[in-house]
Amino acid sequence: MIQFNDVYKRYPNQYEALSGLSFELDKGEMAFLTGHSGAGKSTLLKLIALIERSSHGQVIVNNQNLGRLPKWKIPYYRRKIGLVFQDHNLLHDRTVFDNVALPLIIAGENHREIGRRVRAALDKVGLLSKERTHPIALSGGEQQRVGIARAVVNRPPVLLADEPTGNLDPTLSQEIMALFTQFNQVGVTVFIASHDQELINRLPYRRITLNHGRLAVQ
Ligand code: ADP
Ligand code: ADP
Fold first, then answer.
1. Which helix (H) or strand (E) holds 87?
2. What angle do CA 165, 168, 174 make, to 5 degrees?
3. What residue range is the signal peptide (predicted)?
């Protein structure tokens, strides 16, 4: 599902954030991306989400070589990638419903389908009763669950998360991980960047570890 072949990423300031990276994630696999701060984890996820492009090497996602994807196709490609961030990037002047609906509105879905899908996504994260609430009135864990509902509302085959439990206590972090596991169980490929060793050690999933932009020997 996700394949890196000898990938390098050099930023415009010439800093090489990723060097000679090769690995594969299978369809339906769940894995952690670990490594020290500055190791290149966010950069790697950005290459998959096409927020950044590789400087050299191939990134292939869902049988698409991202280096060959024309610019106009990027918005369509992104709909197939769910993204969850540490600070969840919710809009505070909109309700929970409207936040989760955003990707569907951008995709031009009809009103009825939006209502149905938003409620299905909120139901999956256990927040159906909060659809009229504003994010500011929710706890940190609930806000993160809204972020996850928004990421999966398009039913993407790939779900990427960048330090999704960074601001949460251990109990809430485990709840968030349980949600990712649920999505993985219905076939979604899940890739989670995290430096929370304690949390990762409790879970049976594969780890891909970066060390200064290179794959660490495990
Ligand atoms: P991690 O997520 O593992 O903390 P990042 O991918 O955020 O690592 O960063 C990897 C390295 O690339 C860091 O040294 C960081 O300073 C550098 N970096 C990240 N983004 C940029 C950018 N836009 N321009 C230049 N350097 C960057
Ligand atoms: P529909 O009612 O159109 O079938 P739902 O959103 O209710 O749509 O999802 C149907 C099933 O698909 C659920 O069991 C759900 O867990 C699963 N599913 C498959 N892929 C995803 C995904 N990427 N995100 C969320 N759910 C998914």
1. none
2. 65
3. none
Distance (Å) from CA 10 to ligand 1 centroid: 10
Region of residue 169 (phi > 0: left; psi between -120 and 50: alpha; otherwise: beta): beta
Tell which one of 184, 186, 189, 191 to mutate to probe ligand 2, the residue whose CB is within 8 A of the most ligand atoms. 186
Task: Tell me if residue 14 falls in helix, strand or coil.
Answer: coil
1-80+157-218 maps to CATH 1.10.260.40: no
What's the pLDDT score for residue 167?
82
117 with 163: CB under 8 angstroms? Answer: no
CA atoms within 13 A on the CB side of 106: 13
23 pLDDT above the threshold of 80: yes
- Which pLDDT score is estimated for 86? 85
Distance from the alpha carbon of residue 124 to the mean position of ligand 2, in angstroms: 9
Residue bearing the CA closest to ligand 1, atom 25: 11
- Taking only the tens place, the pLDDT of each residue in 80-123 is 999 998 887 899 999 999 999 999 998 899 999 999 999 999 99
Residue limits of CATH 3.40.50.300 in the chain: 1-80+157-218
d(CA 93, CA 70): 34
Q: How large a percentage of the chain has pLDDT more than 70?
A: 100
| pLDDT tops 90 at residue 186 | yes
Beta bridge partners of 84: 161
**How confident is the model at residue 69, as a pLDDT?**
95
